[in-house]
Amino acid sequence: MDTQTTLGGGGARNLRPLRLRRVVPGADPALAAGGAAFWASVFGPSLASDIVAELQELAQVRELPAGSLLMSSREPARDLCLIARGDAALGSAPADGSFQPERSVQGPGWLDAGSAWLGGMPAQDAVAVSDVVLVTLPRADVQALMQRCPELARRLVLTLARQVQSLTLATHDLMHKDAEGRFAAWLLQRCAGEAASDGSITVALNERKRDIASQLAITPETLSRLLRQLSRKGLISVAGYSVKVLDLAALRALAGV
Amino acid sequence: MDTQTTLGGGGARNLRPLRLRRVVPGADPALAAGGAAFWASVFGPSLASDIVAELQELAQVRELPAGSLLMSSREPARDLCLIARGDAALGSAPADGSFQPERSVQGPGWLDAGSAWLGGMPAQDAVAVSDVVLVTLPRADVQALMQRCPELARRLVLTLARQVQSLTLATHDLMHKDAEGRFAAWLLQRCAGEAASDGSITVALNERKRDIASQLAITPETLSRLLRQLSRKGLISVAGYSVKVLDLAALRALAGV
DNA sequence: CGAACCCTTGATACGCTTCAACAAGAGTGG
DNA sequence: CCACTCTTGTTGAAGCGTATCAAGGGTTCG
Question: Which CATH number belongs to the domain containing residue A187 in this structure?
């Protein structure tokens, strides 16, 4: 039917993401774990350097292999959790060993800034998708630091406000968009600022397709059919784990409302 | 088929909620709008009284009729929004005059504590379901107050963290539960702490059924069929706008996972 | 090689929406 | 008071969207 018989075929495609990635590019650990750049990317730029130093003092930095459980909904959250390097997934682990990712986080960024304040269990579990550098800040210490530095409090409020907005948009999508619309919106978000010269944009899928499907609340089968449909309609062109966006406007129309 | 021919029938049921309620019980305005009780219910108890006084100073209190637009996703959010009295609905207003409620808020409580910090448009619209007393706090002033009172900052972080958790649970439900499960969960949440002597619990539906359906992301038709199904199975008993829960355990089983 | 894992494709089943029709109030105005 | 309209909820029939089940091929690893 298509000139391209198999989506998974072709030689020039990028490699498939493994379930557990064992090899990791050896990034500079000093930069990733402890640099001021890291704190700037999670708390925003130009935070007073003495505060950054205190945060660095409080932070517990751990390097963990892919597959590690970073956060469990079965034990109380005492720390604010961040990812300095690597990818992680938030979702639910239904005790039978499987894991349903609901949201993905790429380092450097926040994993969970909220649960620790509530004195109960976090609402989600988290696992490392790649090898990660996990940074944890004890809530009590952060609270004490906030007492002396109102600016830090403001940054934290900002972080939480952003997350509220992001989650609000996510629920809106789940309530009002069908699978095609949600995938279009997901793809557009991955396009942000990566325009090529001819107007086409290529998006590399870093995760397994079944994890993408899981985040979109659809089955892997449906995602596969969706990719086929959209490429048949000429909106995208798929080669393994790389998706080229051909018709940005049409994709936006699908994603809108 | 049933002994009860029509769900809407029967004489002893409670009244139907109107689309725009015009009559409102005349509660004590002093208590609702300005009392320390109000601030305690939104910021938590035992906040320093001088801070409460300053908040009271900053707050702009407005009494608005049912149907009013309280918040628009088309104009930037400069204030933190609270409801002192009455009911409001957050959702999307698709410009054609209709309104799709996604979440309901009952006073006293927060309407939107997050958007104002982001310097953009809020992600949702809000309308008053009943007559409401709307309280707004200019973000800049709250920020200045937080500088002098770290405790206030902590309370705000707590508020936002709670909302993050609530939204996380909502997305989880939308992703993994079917309509029956979501409705069961919704009903159970309304049961909280209202147990009668014989173990049965009666829940009064304050909103239109179509608004409940909208919050559950289902159609009114499906909700109607769902009520019929569950009452046929003996889990609940429906009389107009009052639902009696008969089998709490079975309902929990439906809502679980 | 076989085993494990992933993606794809097809056939089928089910949940929910859509559309249409109807009954019951609630508001309106004679 | 009644007739009329508007809105809400209910019910049934039909159809779409997505899940489920089953089969097959590709790739990686032991």
Answer: 1.10.10.10
User: Are B166 and B249 part of one and the same domain?
Assistant: no
Upstream peptide bond of A108 is cis (omega within 30 degrees of 0):
yes
Closest nt to B15 (CA→C1')? C25
Could you say which DSSP state residue A20 is in?
Answer: S
Domain end residue (candidates: A149, A173, A197): A173
Structure tokens that stand for B175 in this block: 């992703």
pLDDT band at A198 (very low <50, low <70, confident <90, very high): low
Residues A133 and A61 in one domain: yes
Are both A167 and A87 inside the same structural domain?
Answer: yes
B184 with B227, same domain: the answer is yes
The two tokens of residue B11 are 């004489």
B173 touches strand C (CB under 7 A): no
Q: Is there a single domain that holds both residue A181 and residue A85? A: no
Cβ contact (<8 Å) for B172 and A217? no
Residue B2 confidence class, pLDDT cut points 50, 70, 90: very low
> pTM for the whole thing?
0.89
Cα(A128)–Cα(A81) distance, integer angstroms: 13
Provide residues 61-120 of A with CB closer than 7 Å to any strand D atom: none
**Is the minimum distance from the CB of A206 to strand C below 7 Å?**
no
Using a CB-CB cut-off of 8 Å, the residues of chain B touching A174 are 171, 174-175, 217
Confidence of residue A3 (pLDDT cuts 50, 70, 90): very low
Contact between B127 and B67 (Cβ < 8 Å) = yes
Enumerate the residues of chain B whose CB falls inside 8 A of the CB of residue A156. Answer: 157
Cβ contact (<8 Å) for B174 and A176? no
Nearest nucleotide to B9 (CA to C1') is C24
For residue B171, the chain A residues in CB contact (below 8 A) are: 102, 167, 170-171, 174
Domain count, chain A: 2
Query: Is the domain of B74 the same as that of B136?
Result: yes
Query: Crossing angle of helices B150-176/B179-191, nearest 10°?
Result: 140
Say if residue B10's pLDDT is above 90.
Answer: no
Residues 51-110 of A with CB under 8 A from B: 92, 94, 100, 102
Average pLDDT over chain A reads 87
**CA A148 to chain CA mean position, Å:** 32
- Which residue range is the domain that position B99 belongs to? 3-173
Identify whether residues A72 and A194 lie together within a single domain.
no
Do A21 and A93 fall into the same domain?
Answer: yes
Express each pLDDT in A229-246 by its tens digit. Answer: 999 999 999 999 999 999
Residue that is last in its domain, among B138, B173, B208: B173
Alpha-helical segments (H) within A103-191: 139-148, 150-176, 179-191
